[in-house]
Amino acid sequence: MKGTINIDQERCKGCALCIEFCPKKVIKLSDRLNAKGYFVAAFDGGKECTGCGTCAVMCPEVAIEVMKS
Ligand code: SF4
Ligand code: SF4
């Protein structure tokens, strides 16, 4: 199964929980600041994401949407 995710940049607070728990390690902290001044998470690997949904479950800000394909 393949998947992709969308991270709502303005909801993200850069806590890195999604990064820590992604089994495929396809999320990274970017060097981009959002309007609140947080470095935001960025999806980094379309091919490896399985759409498992762990990142979305872990995100305390409900900033991640997972799409399976
Ligand atoms: S859906 Fe799973 S594999 Fe894809 S980015 Fe989230 S935790 Fe990682
Ligand atoms: S878990 Fe949510 S708030 Fe934390 S870095 Fe990931 S997307 Fe941002």
Write the layout of secondary structure elements.
Elements: E1 3-7, H1 17-21, E2 27-33, E3 39-43, H2 54-58, E4 64-68
Antiparallel strand pairs: 1-4, 2-3
Counted beta strands: 4
Nearest-angstrom radius of gyration?
A: 11 Å
**What's the average pLDDT?**
96
Identify the strand order in the major beta sheet: 1-4
Structure description:
- The chain is an alpha+beta fold and 69 residues long.
- It has one domain (3-68): Alpha-Beta Plaits.
- The protein contains two helices and four strands; from the N terminus they run βαββαβ.
- It has a two-stranded antiparallel sheet. The protein has a two-stranded antiparallel ribbon with strand order 2-3.
- The longest helix has 5 residues, at 17-21.
- The radius of gyration is 11 Å and the shape is globular.
- The termini are close together.
- It binds iron/sulfur cluster (2 copies).
- One iron/sulfur cluster is lined by residues 7, 12-18, 41, 58-59, 61, 63-64.
